[in-house]
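**Protein record**
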Amino acid sequence: MKEKFVNTKNVKKFLQVVQKANHKKIGMERMALIFGKTGYGKTEAAIRYAAQSGAVVVRMKELMKGRWFLRELIWELGQSPEWTTEALFKQITETLKEKPRSIIIDEIDRVGLNSQLLETIRDIHDVSKVPVILIGEDQADKKLMRMPRLFDRLIAVAKFEPLDQDDVKEFAKEVSEIRFEQDAVEKITQDSEGKIRKVVSLIHEAEDVAGTLQRKSIGAKDLR
């Protein structure tokens, strides 16, 4: 299997949301939310985009509070953190004004409805004017609706869905040297439940089978 990033429908959706948040319109908000169940490629899409664009990614932790978050963010921005919370906030906003970069905050729902932390994220957006992309699990949109001052700033909201047959077919074509017949694509789509890790695992298994059978193509009947 070739190590290759595949532009699934979800990845294209991610890029569309980011493009909306990166507008140049004065006075318009630049926050967005991407959410969906685990396994559909949200974090991978974020890391890929950050590597190409210079955006920074902060992954929320279960016990993370305001000051911890600020320190983590300033480290990602390439600066040594100040000591006080006030100084940290000023350091972050001034750094972003000097060198604007998108901020991607992964697993935003791990902080629950910690209004202080979420309001701090909103304040960073409001002061620095940089795009802020929030990534959460299923129902993250409904959770954030309970905080209207934050939710009203979202100019784009997108949900990641399970990989469908077209995604799996493209995935197999891009990463594998063997050809997957349509019924094999259908079986992998069903058995994987549309989750990327399972799709990759099933393609690996199919390649092992193809090697054993000395075949260049695989059908559903060849798979377990």
